[in-house]
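thread: overnight batch results

M.L. [08:02]
morning all. the overnight job finished for the chain we discussed friday. pasting input first so we're all looking at the same thing
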Amino acid sequence: MQDYIIKNVYKKRKEKIMKINILFEYLRLLKKRLFLYLVSIFFMTVFGAFFDVAGSMLTKQVFAVAQKKYIIENDILLFGVYIIAGLVSIILSAMFMKIYNNQAKRGSVEIKQIVFAKSLRFPMDYYYEHHSAELISKIIFETDAASEIYGSRLRRVVAPIIYVFVYIIVMLRLSIPLTTILILFNIFIVIINGLLAKPMRLVSNLVAKSNVKMTKHITNIISGIEVKKLYDTKYRNELKYINESNSYVKYQKRKMIIDALLDAFYNGFDLLCALFFLAVAIAFIQNKWVSVENAAAIYTMYGALSIRFLQLGKNYPELMNCIVYAERVLEFLQIKEENTTSGNNIEISELALKGDNAVEVNDISFSYSQIHNILNKISFSIKKNETVAIVGKSGSGKTTIAKLLLGFYNVQNGEILLFGVSIKNWGLYNLRKLIAYIPQEPYLFEVTIKENIRYGNLEASDEQIITAAKLANAHEFIINQKNGYDTLVINGGKNLSGGERQRVAIARAIIKNAPIILMDEATSALDNESERRIHESIERLKHSRTIIIIAHRQETINIADTVVEI
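M.L. [08:03]
and the structure it wrote out:
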């Protein structure tokens, strides 16, 4: 039993240390802002406390004068000193409050930028294995909740400690025994209040997880609205969302109950402290252990001190709540990123693109599961400015080759060379500049057609966009749209046909001006007319680019100069 208690105490102590480490780690994300942020919290609080002390000293002087028959010049001087000190303190406190708010808000925005940038830098297998709702929840919900540490939560825990420290120094100078009794009483109350910190932390974790699940249901329904309308006639997906939202409400109710307990405790504590002080102070005054004016000054500060003690007990669980989210954000930031820095030491130029072959695949093998090879010692070469069709049965690894060429996965055995240089030496940054990719289902952003094409080259002019659209056989259908190139793409391109989306994607690839264009089953789901128009686009590009077409339709294979069978 004793060993169990010791282990339990050790476990709790370890958890507290971990939470403190998480807090410090999250604060370090402020970088250069951290020093100014902490200094501003300290001084705005100290000067705020000085204002209260000046008020208490003013109260003491009023009681002291009230016991005299007349006011002397020194009394008037002290009144002036306390009033001026209070005014100066409140002005300085306001100045540092402004600095604090500026650093906190800027820091919160920068953290959101860091999390957003991080969400774009993972290897592709991360996006294959994780739901997009997890990223949305991290960027919006969890980052906002964690950044409340900067906004108010940390200050609301630190400030009461500083306030109490200043108050105690002054109160002890007025009466050591009375101040000691009051402090012990407040510490006892705060310990009881702090017991609510753990349940607050646990319920906050449940709220965060439930929010992720709700976001998943929302994104699934919205992104697949057509399938939902066709198959989900009994509204089961709505029921799933309703059930999860009910769970979210249940957890929020628990959190609100804890908040309500904290508020109730706050109000009761305020009254209890006032009654306790009156009882103790009367006893001290009757026994002449403290003067009336000193008791009045202590009472003025004790009211503020009690509130600060209570704020510490109330705000500590709320800080723990934010630390839960900070931990999740920090874990997210620790996920290994895609390595785009290694290699990249070769400058892309005509000289770098030397040799007769654009692509050389030498004895490559690859497996997703490490059990069964999708590719097993595959070799082939593609000449510069040649159009090649890669064919094979479904599951033979055609799309896997595309992913390896794009650096979405690393080659496990063998080697792939582009223009005589290993893709490992090119580095991912250069590698992806060399290849323009057109997937089977191209994604179009919810911006104009013009901006979707410009995404291939953000510096492209309107004239270059029109030229690329003409080469992609897309110009004619674009100008026939109501707003032409300024037509807004809706819901990933649902207001365009499959062939039109593909031609916009081809225009986007053309404007990138990469020496290699990689098309993965780009015509497999299109009608004959759309396929014909895309074939015309390919014919216009032949012999000016190296074109790799992953295909299974004979009409597409026929336009290739060479066929590679996997």
